[in-house]
Write a structure and sequence with these properties.
Length: 319
């Protein structure tokens, strides 16, 4: 009986996968089957996604969402994969990424005055690129974000930022497509932005609009340069990491707290705490999601034992 049920389940899975592939091949989306998610996350960890789809246009996105909704197919949307930890068993369903080759990769300036400009950026634009690009045109506001990896969509979703400056500070409007495929444009006040979070749910950010102030180009570029130098000095750039693993507790730094326990360089398997910044955990080579989770849980327990502080992860864990 058990064996029979197992065969039935396998068949059902087979039929669903076939339907998905048939649908995807009828669209212009670029897709891959059994795609390693380790290739799409900066941590370099994650098993295979059943399907990995790069969506080029809003029309494709809407069609895909209508299909997933009608057929009750699980999906997950990624940006630059810089804040993500996928499980070793990968993702059963569709992982969607907005391509930066077409409309989701565009940057446009508009309503330019002597003192300010509005700029709209597709969700797949690289945040560091936008910060540098706007700085080069003499517009300030995003320069502090120039060292943050990832896309605009992902950064806005998680309200990425540095000390005293979040991406939500300069944005005023967001275009989204909800999980049923309906488009909407909403002003910033609808999203209740707080430290490293927004209340954006069940919707995909497709475009973000900012207001930026005109400023001296050299001053802004100098800030971009300084920001990047500070990062180079304090953070393990060039390694496989996901930025800060934990959010900062109020008025403190999770990195400082972990460091105070002398945990720099501590490792479990190939997952290791950076020797430069203790809130950065590195995949030395072949770390599994299990290694990384064990390290995260270990650190959380040690911090709690010593300080009674409950650290909360900043990265998203998808298993
Ligand atoms: N510190 C240590 N040891 C460490 C790390 C930090 O003693 O291993 C000390 C530093 O010396 C400093 C203080 O802690 O006195 C704060 O450190 P840092 O300036 O690096 O800032 P942070 O609070 O640890 C935050 C953001 C970073 C962002 C930096 C710089 C969070 C969780 N982290 O880190 O953002 O780059 O400020 O603006 O909000 C990220 O979000 O992924 C991220 C990397």
């Amino acid at each position: 009986m058990i064996k029979y049920q197992h065969i039935k389940l396998q068949n059902a899975e087979y039929v669903i996968k076939n339907n998905i592939e048939e649908f995807l091949s009828s669209t212009e989306c670029i897709y891959k089957c059994n795609e390693p998610l380790s290739k799409h996350t900066t941590l370099g960890i994650g098993g295979n996604a059943d399907f990995f789809v790069e969506v080029q246009t809003e029309k494709q996105l809407i069609n895909l969402l209508k299909f997933t909704n009608e057929n009750k197919i699980k999906f997950y949307v990624i940006g630059g994969g810089s804040n993500l930890l996928f499980g070793d068993n990968g993702y059963k369903g569709i992982v969607i990424k907005l391509s930066n080759k077409k409309e989701f990769g565009h940057i446009n300036f508009f309503n330019n005055t002597d003192t300010e400009t509005k700029v709209e950026a597709g969700a797949a634009v690289n945040l560091a690129y936008l910060a540098k690009y706007t700085a080069e045109q003499g517009f300030g506001g995003l320069e502090y974000l120039s060292g943050i990896p990832g896309t605009i969509g992902g950064a806005v979703y998680g309200n990425a930022g540095v000390k005293n400056c979040d991406i939500s500070s300069n944005l005023y409007e967001i275009e989204l497509t909800d999980y049923f495929g309906n488009k909407d444009t909403l002003t910033k006040d609808k999203f209740n932005f707080q430290y490293r979070k927004s209340n954006i749910k069940n919707a995909i950010i497709t475009k973000v609009k900012f207001i930026l102030k005109k400023a001296d180009k050299n001053d802004i570029l100098q800030t971009v340069f300084k920001e990047q130098q500070t990062r180079k000095k304090n953070q393990p750039l060039g390694t496989k990491n996901a930025g800060c693993i934990f959010k900062n507790p109020l008025n403190d730094s999770a990195g400082r707290i972990i460091d105070s326990l002398n945990l720099k360089n501590f490792n479990i398997g190939d997952a290791q705490i950076s020797d430069k910044h203790a809130n950065f955990f590195i995949n030395r080579n072949n770390a599994s999601c299990a290694d990384m989770l064990n390290l995260i849980n270990f650190v959380r327990d040690e911090v709690y034992k010593k300080y009674k502080i409950k650290l909360e992860t900043e990265i998203k864990i998808i298993k």
